[in-house]
Amino acid sequence: MHSRSGPHRLLFGRMYEDVEIERAAFHGKRRVFCIASAGDTAIKLAETHEVVACDINPTQLAYAQQRAEGAPRETGDAERAMNFARTFMPLIGWRSEYLHTFLNLSNLAEQISFWCDHLDTLRFHAAFDALMSPAILHLIYQSQLLTVLPPKFGSILRKRMECTFANHPNSTNTYAKALFLGETEIAAVSKSANIRFVQSDAASYLESCSPGSFDAFTLSNILDGAEPSYRTRLTQAIGHAATKDAVVVLRSFAEPPSDLTTNHAHRDRSILWGVVDVRKTLEF
Ligand SMILES: C[S@@+](CC[C@H](N)C(=O)[O-])C[C@H]1O[C@@H](n2cnc3c(N)ncnc32)[C@H](O)[C@@H]1O
């Protein structure tokens, strides 16, 4: 078992990526390459695919593997930071009963009017935008990652929240519940046999695979803050390891370029992403 507090820490106790995007995009595909992170995507995809789950961080990989073997969730640095942020909710007038009522709504029009009337207040704007300012984010995240965040990230994330509430019922949105209330699903999942766990950076592992090894790839947002040379290398490694009609899903916190026709961010219920790019590997 790797230390949770050494140089490799447990950053994510859960994933904030809506796996329904992958489930739809990978329908009919057999072998899937995914980033392990907290294991949620690998575990869900393993119900219908053969999965290789890869992570550069051995602590995160060991945690994902334990979860796939039935261990319950733990708290990572991301959840600790969000738990801390949530302690300020009463100060901005966000009462717990409002949040619970809001997150149990299913009617989209009611969700938006509740959001505007009770939660999307000037105090929330000021507090959230301050929390998402570069000065505060610098205390938590590496500067490389921050380079991809759009200016006024707080206001952009608030727009992503509103878009999610306008398009997806809250009552079934476990991602929104995890962000606003903290973890609500701590139970262990049943064992997944169909996953092989690999500790590596994604490009090195894919370069080492036989040509045509994978029908689908889901890469989390590993290119946010990566060097341009790593993007080129990963693209080539995917081209090498992909079958002819393979599909790639890549997320980013960045705002989407206006000509990105393959962006499915509006379908991802986890709120955070500006880009959820779903495309054929040939176009990647
Ligand atoms: C990019 S982070 C983002 C987390 C994600 N948003 C989520 O909801 O889980 C996910 C994982 O990618 C891993 N990672 C980052 N760069 C990688 C790379 N080049 N190859 C393999 N894993 C990588 C990190 O160790 C981390 O566990």
Describe this structure in words.
The chain is of the alpha/beta class and 284 residues long. Helix 5 (96-103) packs antiparallel against helix 6 and helix 6 (108-119) packs antiparallel against helix 10. The protein has helices spanning 19-25, 40-45, 58-68, 77-86, 96-103, 108-119, 122-131, 134-140, 143-146, 153-167, 174-181, 202-208, 228-241, and strands at 31-35, 50-55, 195-199, 214-218, 242-252, 275-280. The chain is globular. Helix 13 links the parallel strand 4 and strand 5 (242-252). The longest helix has 15 residues, at 153-167. The two termini are 36 Å apart. It binds S-adenosylmethionine. Residues 12, 15-17, 35, 37-38, 54-57, 60, 201-202, 220-222 line the site of S-adenosylmethionine.
Trace the largest sheet across and list its strands. 3-2-1-4-5-6
Sheet having the most strands: 6 strands, mixed
Proportion of strand residues: 5-15%
Q: If helices are DSSP runs of H or I spanning 4 or more residues, what is the number of helices?
A: 13
- Number of strand segments: 6
Helix amount, in percent? 40-55%
Oligomer: single chain
Mean pLDDT: 92
Structural class: alpha/beta
Each distinct ligand: S-adenosylmethionine
Show unreliable segments. 1-5
What CATH calls the topology of the largest domain is Rossmann fold
Just give the CATH class of the largest domain.
Alpha Beta
